[in-house]
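Q: A reviewer asked whether we had any structural model of the full assembly, not just the individual parts. We don't, so I'm hoping you can provide one. Inputs are below.
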Amino acid sequence: MSNKDFVLSVEGLTVSFDGFKAVDDLSFYVEEGEIRVIIGPNGAGKTTVLDLICGRTKSTEGSIKFRGKDLSKMTEHEIVHAGVGRKFQNPSVYEDLTVFENFELSFPRGRSVFGALGFQRDAEVLKAIEETAEMVFLQEHLGMQADLLSHGQKQWLEIGMLLIQQPSLLMLDEPVAGMSVAERKKTAELLLKITKDRSVIVIEHDMNFVADIADRVTVLHQGKVLSEGSMDHVQKDPKVIEVYLGH
Amino acid sequence: MFDGYTGSELMAIFAMQGFAGLILFSVLVLMALGLAIIFGQMGVINMAHGEFMILGAYVTYLTSLFFETYLPGLSSIYFFVAIVLAFIAAASLGAFVEWALIRRLYKRPLDTLLATWGLSLILQQTYRSVFGAREKGVSLPDWMMGSIPVTDMVEIPINGIIVMVLTLLITLSVYFIMQRSQWGAKVRAVVQNRPMAAAVGINTSIVDRMTFALGCGIAGIAGSAFTMIGSTGPTSGQLYIVDTFMVVVFGGAANLMGTIASAFTISQAQTILEFFMSGSIAKVLTLGMIVVILMLRPQGLFTLKIRR
Amino acid sequence: MSNYSKQKFLSPAELGGFIVLAILLFVVLPLSVDDFRLNLIGKYLSYSFVAMGLVLCWGYGGILSLGQGVFFGIGGYCMAMFLKLEASSVENTAIQSTPGIPDFMDWNQLTELPWFWEPFNSLGLSLIAVILVPGLFAFLIGLAMFKRRVGGVYFAIITQAVAAILTILIVGSQGMTGGINGITDLRTLLGWDIRTDEAKVILYFVCVTFVFICLFLCQFVLRSKLGRLLVAVRDTEERVRFSGYNVDNFKIFIFTFAAMLSAIGGALFTLQVGFMSPSFVGIVPSIEMVIFCAVGGRLSLLGAVYGALAVNFAKTTLSEAIPELWLFALGGMFIAVVSIFPNGLMGLYNTYISAPVNRFYHAAVRFINKDKPVETLSEPLSEPESESTLGAK
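A: Here is a predicted structure for the entire assembly that you could use as a starting point for your response.
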């Protein structure tokens, strides 16, 4: 297989902390427009994989190719500029700023020091913000301070902050954690809507939600790929059953 | 700077200056130990740490006065009594300060820094009002004054050895308290997961207070040692605070061996450099070196863990 | 356009605050105090530049520098070096063994001007140096520290070490810097005697003018997207990185900007007081400058000015009357501003004066308009005050 068919190719990725290999010789490939869900028991290295891709942690070995660029050699903001967006496990938004300002800071313009000094809220910015806000169900809350939002709304806000960056790879760490059933449903619809023109990697524990959205599922266990394929496939894989139900 | 010295003379100078640095090293280790316990275990920067040291120094001074006046026959052992009293005084003040001020400021490290600076100013002025602005010197008992000749050029001061041994004992006991005792286990539990520690029945606020008091108490002992190398004034502590911070960050906070190694490096570099150039330039070089090293290794020289 | 995206350079309340301060500094104080006191106030005001820088850097950006005296001092020294050279003309120093160089150099057996003094023969170069030398120095420190992700208390301690180093160096190289006494006996600026009462009054107005220029500059920075980014960096630095910003550069910028502001203050200090010495550079003066900002309110630019005035006024008054009390008071202030009123004087003003007045105003408006339909209610007097929402955590 040539790398060109994939948005993201992770090959031989290894990271060790004090000799403990959190991710061990991991390889996987994400296709254009695919929704990939990563599942696995606690400590399997799911979040670490996202950390490695977005540059939060530096790998010990291996390569992370994103559209031909090697992300493992780039800094966090360069990776964002290349088109990778990351949502954290706990919603991470600017709590002291309004929803509008949260979107504004995420808008991909004026990212240098002097660019930020000269940044103007012109029609383009306002249009992008209003469209995004509507997409993540926050159009009524633009003037509200972000720490007053509910937990689920903060999750949406963070997703919206990523969307406004127009990333071609979106990585979501437990996007429906702490959401009500109704909110989960809305979020699943949202994800299906926003993946039309981009690839998404999702970490999730909620199996119903995974079944709703996943194209393919990768099961991690102790930093390695245990199984990969459709939801059906991995659910029937005896190794997966062993890890989840065994012991 | 080494011009005009023969090789054996240089060795002797290094050795002599090295031993002369022993007390400075001991003071720095004890100061840094206290600061590192507090900073490493609780994330609190105690800018008043130097004033806790000076409290110990004043207590030592008062004890020596007391022995001279009332118990002249026992004055040769006053120092050991003074150490205990200095520890008790500094630890009690520490416990009080933690209760009155510090516990309200956890998780706001920068604010704690400013508040403890304020505390240090208040303590300085208190010392000045109580003891006067003039520096107080302590006279050592005769048997501690001499030195042991090792070669014809190298002599080791006896008080240096005593302070050194004392420092070693305290360091070892701190290690055992932190790593081996039940109480140390509680402290470490609180550091790792405060809510969980509270949930399993550890009184976290008592643990905090005791930890802070212990750190301050050790600073008090450092004050006792300090009386041997300098006279005690209201602002003497301030001269040591930056050095001590440098020791702590240089060694990587919360790392006992790192703290000792870095105190050793810094005190030795400073005393040896001082022989060859003016004290102030030696200080600039030492501070500058630490700043550069911290730039290259912000996590400190002796930390191995990747912490997130 | 809807309400949430509107953005004014100054909200009505802020505009009011600026006007009140302008009247106070330009009119009320010059008319009500004698020349000596006015000069003293001018000296206090030169500290307000440091405090403004700290509002941006510490209050908004969360970067606490305990070494602002370094930049205040370098700015002041740059100014003092020019003035000293002018005062050390060959005629003035004819009795020296080497005429034409500053007196302290002569006392220290220097026979020619050190190379780094040469540019300070020119006023233009000196004024550029006032801003650029501290700016460059801060830039280098920031570059070294923030690129290595040194922050928080580590950064604070390192800035303190820098202050210690610089003081030792200045004191140590007496022949080139004037040592512990500093650079004294400054007389004229391009032939204009700065020691007369008249000159001091003029310099006071120059200082106040610079206060307002810098206030507006800071306001511009805070009102730009960069201002909101600073808050974001302070609270959630990682998110900012993953929104595609090179956070280190923003920190370097704001630290450098704050240093340049301090330097302007230092230069104005030298002009008004007539000397500069290491006693404004070291650890103790540097950390005292933090209290000016904290007392005024670490999130308020106007607070920075009031804080510098109030603390220094208290210092002069108390140390004249009861010297022992001053350190107790100063120590108490440090403790109070972190534990009791973290937003300083401006926080108290907003809570106890501005907010009740606003509530009363709105109640009055509602009462007057109670028969009219809701839509015609007038706009609120002020936008919700940023102090309350951006409060330090």
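A: Points you may want to mention in the reply: The longest helix of chain B spans residues 7-42. The beta strands of chain B are 147-149, 155-157.
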